[in-house]
Write a structure and sequence with these properties.
disordered C terminus, three-stranded antiparallel β-sheet, single chain, alpha+beta, disordered N terminus, 55 helices
Length: 1520
């Protein structure tokens, strides 16, 4: 056998190396030999560790074209139309990029401009305090006479303007703390942080007051602006004492020394700056050298006192064992709100007291200065040797300026500072920190100084013709001392060196404010310095600063070991404790093929995205991808069996997966048939997707386990969060916080970026228990058009308001992300079966809303992310839509009512829900209840307008009769009759709504805007239009608003009546009837008779010793799969002999798993005996599963599922007596709700109608004429009508304002995820000259994963080794070592001889390796990648060159393998193979790594023990 044939032969059976294959047209090999042997059975007893091999049946019959297989001539690709085309995505991506660039430039201009304005207005006010006068003509103030001031007096309004500038941020902080105290649960205060903050902030307030009211007034404007940069000594000292801990511990020691030297230079520079300022003061005040040196001392110590306020940012975060400042900082974080409330209130008092002392001490007339300061007297004289000498006056007016000019200037200063601060926050949120925050803030002070020293001081600044700003005028000549220039440069250097961390981009998108800045606000005097020194030096905590979070630990079991056997393969070396692991869980039932295709393609996108991130980190990157995640896809199939056979929808899923892969990748890519596993709940099919991620379909047997969506959710919650979590060693709680469940419907379509946005929500706040995205309905027909507008309005207004005011009440199960740790606290309650009538409505009719209700009751937050888009199929028929809403409407009202009735406990436990939010929900509930009555009156008015000759009574009768008939039908008729009548009545009402339009036009023409109705309708229309305009991607949804308007009576009145009248109906309502596929009726597959079993197989099955995998009438292709299964079983047995620790433990598992349900009552044995039993695993003999490999479920998992089913998921036995009781209770509940609902609406209609009738009969005596009504134009209003209109108007106004705020947040979120490659610094670096952005690296890897036509051509073996074939050769060599296993050698020979000549196996992995080999070739390096730019995409050649060098760097693989061993050790799951593989890699002396070596990935689901333990495999084979 030649080497190439050996590779190809073993490639078929190498599961760990190649999971996908492609079909090629190459047919240049020898003909296939056909072997004919007797049909015999292959049996394997895993318990005894013995493999019995017999002859394999081979038949000459032609191969069948089953699922996943096509004829050789059938090579045309199959494509499907996506709802969101790639051109649409590219258009919006490019639009967002341009928008981000423009917005970043706008932020740069705003930040720079507002910073300059803030500094300039501050200097303007300061320059008019302590002006030069006859009492004291300071050389510092006038720069030896080169500055001329407009006045010689100090007006108290300038003083209080400065006080206002200082205190405004303090007041804002106090208001914020009070709001948090009122609406949130805050942790109690601690003494040590409070004492330290009082001391430091008191020192800061005293120093800042002296700095602002004494030192700056004694300096000229230019020197004062430069002096502001000297307040950084304490941060410089702390920066030297506490090195920057944000850098990696593995950083080169040389760079650590450099950073220490830089910190030392910064501290020395700060000290020298203070010293030179002292020299400047001493030199400029030569005439006062004989006086007490009070001013000189203040110039030294005041900046130091000011800089102490930023100590917190330069002290590292301490752990539980920290001491000193680290410990106090840790304590402070837990009680900041209460501490800030006390401290900043105290700072206000201290500031006012210090200002009072400064301007009243050494007063010439006793208390006259104090009286003048507080406007009791008009003037006084201050004669202080330290602070200054001046004449205090109440105010002075310059020219025609307003007497309140100082206050106006202060307001401009406050607004500009606030805008600058907010724009800096926005710039950091959208990750444009360097161009939009760091650069303008650093440039602000030099530019301000430059402006003041040139043009600004040479002319008067005119506001009006007779009013000039009172800036000092710059006279001819310059007299700045050299000490001032040196001090300014030293201070500026200190600021730049200490705040070098601002030039590092943040990796996290949309950071919260406390993650951006340490202190909650800026300093009103030192704006630029506070923004720089207050910027978070270390990574901000994702938790809220001091909101009281849930203290309870993640539930654990004391009886269960730290790890379960066989689970080590699920832990990737790339996964850390904070790496998100996502269980993608979709529920299916009767989805169509098109609906299944949507979700499969979404999973394939996710698979390719995750695969590219794995490859990028393994092969190119020394740093981790900040957006790296891992996932497993699961599909939970309800009612998957019929008569012990898989139904047609399961088979349709198998076909859809193959078709979707061919359409998404290429027609040549096909994955292996799924593995089939018999489980206690039915069965399981396991696929390996092209990106090596798992897709598992759980087939539920309704006779074995409870069906419906809620019980599927209970099923996967306990499986993932209870059973799977037990395999984690250390760090269970942290990994539980980073374990997520993505709940999907079986027809959803989404992009990986949508999932990343939901993950960002979870990362930013650990108290977020669930997050949902924007759901877009798709389909065709008028009902879908209506739902497009309905979904748009509900998301634009309702969900945005819920997110802004409190929490989202419903995170829809079609696309929502749940945090695993939060679900652990509610999933036991979620298993509660309905025992009362209302439970059927609240629990089972809207399970998604009830799950969110439980999360809210436990104190978790539910959020809405409008930028995360998902598409799902909506009901296209009228009946299906009504039945869907018949479930949703009562469930929504029941869950909201449950929250409102328990509002006291909810507001106490959940800090996100306030009384304001509760009041909003109450108003919304009342308006919802009265909506049918309102629509009834609207129709009544339309009839009256269309037929004015009819009286109001007859109009009432005409409208009441059809509604009354429909209400009666809801009580006595079948559902089909009700729906048919509702459809007819909806059509009639749509015509009536046309009359409403005519009436509105008529009223608008008669009354104009002098009508409440016209104004209200214009307001509503304006809200909708503005909402559509600020949602450009969804703008065309507004086109369907006309249909929505016509359907208002049907959807707001008839649908509500139908839902309430059928409250006792608890069926699902949608997809009740099976839908046949295009080429097969649903019943055809189910009618297929079960395949016959051999008698020997039945005997072995009954004895439980083995499992037979042979079937009669085998085809040659089936034989290949059987041989593959045998070889894989041999490999498993070898691995068990080599590493006994990987064997499944069978002792004690039942007691371990049973601990999960320790608080649950045991069921009676009679219940188990009453279940319908059928042969387990009978479905595996179906012809559609012949090519699937059978696997056995581990015994501990079997025990888990049995106990879970017995505890929570056993099928509910039908008890006719209980069933009748439940039906009667539901009918009674329906009657009570209907009585209340109808009485309230009837009362409302009666009152309004009576008022209208009385008003008409009395000539309008009880109506109020509008003031604008004149000359027959204008309208009047009734009190009741205007009150109800006002309620709707208030609700709509609140929703509109909240939508605008939320939309701004969404806009920033979209910009934050938009990658430009210009500002980002998220770089992966493994060598001195190899640096690539993560975005470009991922793009290149994805291009390399894409299968092209030339990738399908057979490769010349002389060119080089490809990773996949290299691994296969290793496996073949290993097989050759096992000389004493004669039977396996014969099987290999047989398999090789029967190799099909027209197949060359390939995959995404193989394609990637081929492209990687091209990337590493010397010829490509010489050409500079110009020839391959089209092949690798539009990527910079320098980036490709750098990645090629990185791929050959052996340090990458060593670091990843080392990380894998460390992770495995921490979880107690290290295998001998992992250690050996790491030792082999680390001991390698090669300087470069080839494509074959680098792709031997340690992140595979299982470490490849075969390639690294050849000798052990030989010994194991000898034993075998």
């Amino acid at each position: 056998m030649n080497p190439q044939n050996k590779n190809d032969a073993y490639q078929i059976i190498s599961e760990d190396e190649e999971e996908t294959f492609a079909v090629s047209d190459d047919s240049g090999d020898e003909t296939t030999k056909k072997l004919r042997t007797r049909d015999k059975c292959i049996t394997c007893s895993a318990e005894e560790g013995v493999l019995n091999l017999t002859d394999i049946p081979v038949h000459s019959d032609p191969p069948s074209t089953g699922t996943g297989e096509s004829n050789k001539w059938d090579v045309l690709p199959e494509t499907s139309q996506n709802d969101v085309t790639s051109s649409d995505l590219d258009f919006w991506n490019n639009t967002f990029k341009v928008t981000k660039v423009v917005f970043a430039f706008v932020l740069f201009v705003i930040v720079l401009g507002t910073a300059i304005i803030s500094k300039g207005t501050l200097v303007l006010i300061v320059s008019n305090t302590f002006p030069p006068n006859a009492l004291h003509n300071s050389s510092l103030k006038t720069v030896n006479g080169y500055f001329r001031h407009h006045t010689t007096d100090t007006a108290t309004r300038y003083i209080w303007s400065l006080v206002l500038i200082v205190l405004t941020p303090y007041v804002y902080i106090i208001i914020s703390c009070l709001r948090r105290l009122i609406f949130k649960k805050i942790k109690p205060i601690q003494i040590e942080p409070l004492v330290l903050m009082l001391v430091t902030e008191t020192t800061h307030s005293v120093g800042l007051s002296i700095f602002l009211f004494v030192l700056l007034p004694n300096l000229d404007p230019v020197s004062g602006s430069a002096f502001c940069m000297s307040a950084a000594l304490i941060p410089a000292i702390l920066n030297l004492v506490y090195p920057d801990s944000s850098h990696k511990k593995s950083e080169n020691s040389k760079w650590k020394i450099v950073r220490r030297v830089v910190s030392l230079v910064a501290m020395v520079s700060s000290v020298l700056s203070t010293a030179f300022w002292a020299v400047n003061v001493h030199r400029m005040e030569g005439a006062r050298q004989k006086d007490p040196p009070g001013l000189l001392i203040l110039f030294i110590f005041a900046p130091i006192c000011v800089s102490i306020t930023w100590w917190e940012n330069f002290v590292p975060n301490g752990d539980g064992n920290a001491t000193g400042l680290k410990r106090i900082k840790r304590q402070l974080r837990d009680c900041k709100t209460r501490v800030y409330l006390i401290v900043y209130t105290w700072k206000i008092a201290v500031t006012i007291a210090v200002v009072t002392v400064i301007y009243t001490v050494d007063c010439a007339d006793g208390t006259s200065c104090l009286e003048t300061l507080y406007y009791v007297r008009h003037n006084a004289t201050l004669l202080s040797e330290t602070f200054g000498k001046t004449l205090l006056v109440e105010n002075f007016v310059h020219g025609e300026c307003s007497p309140y000019l100082p206050l106006f200037v202060a307001i401009v200063n406050i607004l500009s500072s606030f805008v600058c601060y907010k724009c800096c926050v926005v710039a950091t949120k959208i990750r444009t920190q360097i161009p939009s925050f760091s650069l303008p803030i650093v440039l602000a002070t030099p530019i301000t100084v430059a402006i003041m020293t040139t043009e600004l001081m040479q002319n008067e600044l005119s506001m009006t013709s007779g009013c000039y700003l009172l800036f000092p005028r710059w006279m001819d000549g310059h007299a700045f001392d050299w000490s001032l220039i040196v001090a300014s440069i030293m201070g500026y250097t200190t600021i730049v060196m200490v705040t070098s961390y601002i030039w590092r981009h943040t990796k996290q998108r949309m950071q919260r404010k406390h993650q951006i800045f340490v202190q909650p606000m800026y300093c009103g005097v030192l704006l630029e310095q506070s923004l720089l020194l207050n910027r978070q030096k270390e990574k901000g905590d994702t938790k809220a600063i001091d909101v009281k979070m849930k203290e309870s630990k993640v539930p654990t079991s004391d009886n269960i070991e730290m790890s379960q056997p066989g689970e080590q393969g699920s832990h990737s070396p790339l996964r850390k404790d904070d790496t998100p692991f996502i269980y993608v869980c979709a529920t299916m039932w009767h989805e169509t093929e098109n609906e299944m295709t949507q979700i499969i393609k979404s999973l394939l996108r996710l698979d390719k995205d995750q695969c590219s991130r794995v490859r990028f980190q393994e092969d190119f990157s020394g740093a981790s991808d900040p957006d790296y995640y891992e996932f497993e896809a699961h599909i939970f199939f309800d009612d998957a069996f019929k008569k012990s056979r898989a139904n047609v929808y399961v088979k349709q899923l198998m076909k859809t997966i193959d078709d979707a892969i061919s359409s998404f990748h290429t027609d040549y890519i096909k994955i292996r048939p799924p593995k089939k596993i018999v489980t206690p709940y039915g069965g399981r099919l396991v696929w390996r997707l092209p990106g090596r991620n798992k897709l598992i379909a759980h087939l539920k047997d309704s006779e074995t386990i409870r069906h419906r969506k809620r019980w599927s959710q209970v099923m996967y919650m306990y499986y993932f969060l209870a059973y799977k979590r037990l395999s984690i060693g250390e760090g269970k709680e942290r990994m539980a916080d980073n374990t997520f469940i993505l709940a999907l419907d079986g027809d959803v379509d989404f992009q990986p970026s949508a999932l990343q946005l939901l993950l960002d929500r979870m990362r930013r706040n650990t108290n977020v228990g669930a997050a949902c995205g924007r759901i877009h309905p798709i389909g065709s027909g008028p009902m879908v058009w209506y739902q497009k507008f309905e979904y748009a309005v509900s998301h634009w207004l309702q969900k945005a308001t819920e997110h802004g005011l409190g929490c989202v009440l419903c995170s829809p199960g079609c696309f929502s992300l749940f945090r695993g740790s939060s679900l652990m606290f509610v999933m036991k309650r979620y298993t509660t079966p309905p025992t009362e009538a209302r439970h059927y409505v609240q629990y089972d009719q809207g399970e998604d809303r009830w799950l969110c209700t439980l999360l809210l009751q436990q104190g978790y937050r539910v959020e809405y992310c409008a930028a995360s888009d998902a598409l799902t199929y909506a009901p296209e028929g009228f009946y299906e839509f009504y039945n869907q809403r018949r479930r949703w409407t009562p469930s929504t009202m029941a869950n909201i009512l449950d929250l409102l009735m328990d509002f006291k406990n909810i507001t106490k436990r959940n800090s996100e829900i306030s009384m304001l939010y509760v009041c909003y929900q109450v108003l919304l509930m009342v308006s919802s209840i009265l909506t049918p009555g309102t629509i009834f009156l609207m129709v009544l008015g339309a009839i009256n307008i269309a037929f004015p000759q009819l009286s109001l009574y007859w109009a009432l009768v005409l409208n009441l009769i059809p509604v009354a008939i429909f209400i009666l039908l809801c009580f006595v008729a079948k559902s089909e009759i009700q729906l048919a009548y509702a459809a007819i009545l909806s059509t009639v009402y749509s015509l009536v709504m046309m009359l409403v339009i005519v009436g509105l036009i008529k009223q608008a023409a008669e009354n104009g805007f002098c009508s409440v109705i016209n104004i209200f309708l214009c307001f509503v229309a304006g809200v909708m239009i503005v909402s559509a305009l600020i949602h450009p991607q969804e703008f065309w949804c507004i086109v369907h608003g006309y249909l929505y308007f016509l359907a208002i009576p049907s959807m707001s009145m008839l649908l509500m009546l139908y839902s309430i009248g059928n409250l006792h109906v608890v069926s699902w309502g949608t997809r009740e009837d099976p839908k046949p596929t295009a080429d097969q009726k649903p019943g055809e597959a189910d009618q297929t008779p079960p395949q016959k079993k051999w008698s020997m197989q039945g005997l072995l099955d009954k004895s439980g010793l083995s499992r037979c995998v042979c079937c009669p009438q085998e085809t040659p292709d089936t034989v290949d799969m059987k041989l593959s299964a045998i070889l894989e079983r041999l490999d498993d047995l070898e691995a068990k002999l080599v590493d006994p620790s990987s064997d499944h433990k069978t002792n004690g598992n039942e007691s371990e798993a049973s601990d999960l349900f320790k608080d649950t009552k045991e069921r009676n044995a009679d219940d188990n005996s009453n279940r319908v039993q059928h042969g387990p695993g009978q479905w595996t003999q179906d012809p559609d599963f012949q090519k699937s490999i059978t696997e056995i479920l581990p015994i501990e998992e079997v025990t888990f599922w049995r106990e879970l089913i017995d505890t929570y998921l056993f099928p509910i036995e039908v008890d006719k007596k209980q069933q009748k009781k439940t039906e009667s209770e539901l009918i009674e509940l329906r009657n009570k709700v209907c009585l209340f609902f109808l009485l309230v609406n009837a009362l409302f209609v009666t009152i309004v109608f009576s008022l209208q009738q009385v008003n008409a009969d009395s000539g309008g005596n009880i109506s109020i004429q509008l003031p604008c009504a004149a000359g027959g134009r204008g309208a009047s209003i009734e009190p009741i009508s205007i009150a109800f209109t006002a309620v709707f108007g208030v609700l709509l106004t609140i929703q509109f304002l909240c939508m605008c705020i939320h939309r701004m947040s969404t806009f920033l979120e979209i910009l934050s995820i938009t990658e430009l490659g210009l500002f980002t610094s998220k770089r992966a670096q493994t060598s001195k000259d190899s640096t690539v952005p993560v975005k470009d690296g991922l793009k290149l890897v994805q291009n390399m994963l894409t299968v092209k036509d030339d990738d399908l051509k057979p490769e010349d073996p002389s060119v080089g080794n490809v990773a996949g074939f290299t691994a296969a050769t290793d496996d073949t060599d290993e097989a050759g070592v096992m000389q004493n296993v004669v039977r396996r050698k014969e099987l290999l020979s047989t398999l090789t001889s029967r190799r099909r000549v027209d197949k060359v196996y390939s995959s995404l992995n193989t394609t990637y390796v081929k492209n990687l080999k091209k990337l590493q070739s010397e010829e490509t390096h010489r050409q500079g990648f110009k020839s391959d730019r089209g092949e690798f995409g539009k990527i910079d050649p320098k980036t490709v060159h750098a990645m090629a060098r990185m791929s050959m760097d052996p340090r990458n693989k060593r670091s990843i393998m080392q990380r894998g061993v460390v992770v495995s050790k921490s979880r107690g799951i290290v295998t001998r193979s992992a250690k050996n593989e790491y030792s082999n890699v680390s001991s390698s002396g090669s300087s470069q790594v080839t494509a074959g070596e680098i792709t031997d990935s340690p992140s595979k689901d299982k470490f490849d023990e075969r390639t690294s333990n050849g000798m052990e495999s030989e010994n194991a084979s000898s034993k075998l």
